[in-house]
């Protein structure tokens, strides 16, 4: 689904800035995961998955483009390698925490935690964007 949204998100990223689109994506992710935690309606779940495609398109490629923008031209491969390594390394503890919450709290808890973390990330990215957008266009 994110393939459908990828080109328009890339255009928006070039036009409005990568930071703004990433913040939008994190807020959208937060809303989607909160919705997953709240609903058991099949139509709502389908709509949330469509919106998840929009989130994915708004963040996946745009984050890599932002890393490429921030890293020296001669170090882009290294920068992208570090970025992808960190993303991969964080997936294991995230999955373990989600599994523990699912088993020991309830099936909505991992979604609520993910929603809260995404909203926190959006706020932190906003603060980062606000601070550094004066220096350079993110």
From TrEMBL:
Coiled-coil annotated residue ranges, if any: none
UniProt keyword Transport, yes or no: yes
Pfam families assigned: MFS_1
Domain of life: Bacteria
Keyword hit for Transmembrane helix: yes
Record's subcellular location: Cell membrane
Membrane topology: Multi-pass membrane protein
Transmembrane residue ranges: 21-37, 43-62, 82-102, 108-129
Protein name as catalogued: MFS transporter
Highest classification ranks of the organism: Bacteria, Bacillati, Bacillota, Clostridia, Eubacteriales
